[in-house]
Write a structure and sequence with these properties.
This protein has one domain: Rossmann fold (3-Layer(aba) Sandwich). It is built from five helices and four strands; from the N terminus they run E-H-E-H-E-H-E-H-H. The model has no long low-confidence stretch (mean pLDDT about 90). Strands 2-1-3-4 form a four-stranded parallel sheet, with helices on both faces. Helix 1 (about 20-25) crosses helix 4. Strand 3 (about 60-65), helix 3 (about 80-95) and strand 4 form a beta-alpha-beta unit. It is globular, with a radius of gyration of 16 Å. It has about 150 residues and is an alpha/beta fold.
Length: about 150
C-alpha cells in the first residue's frame, strides 16, 4: 500500500438529517476527510443495494449510508429499510471475499454536525487500515486501459 494512500469513500446521505448534519459540520468549520464524497438522496430508504455494490465496482474503497435517527425518519421507516439493505450488502461482500466492514450504516440528526464529522473521520480511518479494495484500479478500468493502450 502506498504511503500516501487515501481511500475513496462514498456517502449516501438523506437530505433531511444527515445531509443537513454535513452542512452543519461545514458551517461549524469542522474538519473531515475531503475524500468522502457525499451523494444527497431524499431518503436512505431509496438507496438500492445495487447502488451500494455498484459504488465498489466503480472504485470506491468504502461506502456508507447516513440517515435519520431510528424512529425519526421523515418517510416513517426508510432508515430501517436502508439498514436491512446494508446488512444484506455486507453478507454479499463477505461471500465474494470483500471485507464487510467496507459498507456501513450510520444515523445522524440534522443537529449532529460534530457527530457527522466524527463518523467520516472514523470510517475513513477504518477503510485506510483495510487498504485499497483494488490494489491498482477496478477490473473494469483495467480492461478499459488495456483496450485504449
Amino acid at each position: 500500500m502506498p504511503d500516501n494512500y487515501e481511500p475513496k469513500i462514498l456517502a449516501y446521505c438523506c437530505q433531511w438529517c444527515s445531509y443537513a448534519a454535513a452542512d452543519l459540520a461545514g458551517s461549524m468549520r469542522l474538519q473531515y476527510p475531503a475524500n468522502v464524497r457525499i451523494v444527497r438522496v431524499p431518503c436512505t430508504g431509496r438507496v438500492d443495494l445495487l447502488h451500494m455494490l455498484k459504488a465498489f465496482e466503480d472504485g470506491a474503497d468504502g461506502v456508507f449510508l447516513s440517515g435519520c435517527l431510528l424512529d425519526d425518519c421523515h418517510y416513517v421507516n426508510g432508515n430501517y429499510k436502508a439498514q436491512k439493505r446494508v446488512t444484506e450488502g455486507k453478507k454479499i461482500l463477505e461471500q465474494i471475499g470483500v471485507e464487510p466492514e467496507r459498507l456501513e450504516m450510520f444515523f445522524n440528526s440534522s443537529a449532529m454536525g460534530p457527530q457527522f464529522a466524527t463518523t467520516c473521520i472514523d470510517f475513513t480511518g477504518r477503510i485506510r487500515e483495510l487498504g485499497p479494495l483494488y490494489p491498482q484500479a477496478p477490473p473494469e478500468a483495467q480492461v478499459l486501459e488495456a483496450s485504449h493502450g
